[in-house]
């Protein structure tokens, strides 16, 4: 029905649990959400980063204890997984930030196609670098 028929269009609220799971997010929106989530994760893990930095530079003994904590038992694996999440957050936030700066400087990046291309690059680059550094963290090479 249109306004020409004399009826106004009807707007309804969406049902979050029914409608949102079926919504297809564009890749640029996913990368934008990951940029925000990685920023929050880095902020939340900042005390851990400060603790690791303090332990790594205080003395040789505290550095040896830190290495021991990373290499022993289930606690070490858990700490490594948290550090891996921090590595992912940093790389994702950094690369997505470069994407945003580049799109601000070069107005050619504002097209839909270019946005999708840079989003794909951001996603792939951050995941590949996270896997490489995660393999190093877990001692695979």
Q: Would you state the CATH class?
A: Mainly Alpha
Gross morphology: elongated
- Overall average pLDDT: 88
Number of domains: 1
Characterize the largest beta sheet: strand count, sense, and whether it forms a barrel.
none
- The residue ranges in which pLDDT falls below 50 over 5 or more consecutive positions are none
CATH architecture: Up-down Bundle
What would you say this structure looks like, in words?
- This protein is mostly helical and 141 residues long.
- The protein has one domain: Fumarate reductase/succinate dehydrogenase, transmembrane subunit (3 helical TM bundles of succinate and fumarate reductases, Up-down Bundle).
- 75% of the residues lie in helices and 0% in strands.
- The protein has six helices and no strands.
- Helix 3 (46-58) packs across helix 4, helix 4 packs across helix 5 (73-105) and helix 5 packs antiparallel against helix 6.
- The termini are far apart.
Helix/strand layout:
Elements: H1 16-19, H2 27-44, H3 46-58, H4 60-71, H5 73-105, H6 112-137
Helix pairs in contact: 2-5, 2-6, 3-4, 4-5, 5-6
What is the structure about, briefly put?
About 75% of the residues lie in helices and about 0% in strands. It is mainly α and about 140 residues long.
């Amino acid at each position: 029905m249109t306004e020409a028929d004399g009826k106004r269009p009807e707007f309804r609220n969406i049902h979050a649990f029914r409608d949102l799971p079926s919504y297809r997010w564009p890749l640029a929106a996913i990368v934008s959400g990951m940029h925000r989530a990685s920023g929050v994760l880095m902020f939340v893990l900042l005390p851990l980063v400060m603790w690791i930095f303090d332990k790594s530079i205080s003395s040789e003994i505290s550095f040896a204890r830190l290495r021991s904590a990373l290499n022993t038992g289930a606690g070490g694996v858990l700490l490594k997984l948290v550090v891996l999440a921090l590595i992912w957050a940093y790389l994702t936030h950094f690369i997505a930030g470069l994407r945003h700066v580049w799109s601000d400087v070069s107005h050619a990046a504002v097209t839909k196609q270019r946005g999708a291309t840079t989003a794909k690059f951001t996603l792939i680059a951050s995941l590949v670098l996270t896997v490489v550094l995660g393999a190093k963290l877990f001692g695979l090479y």
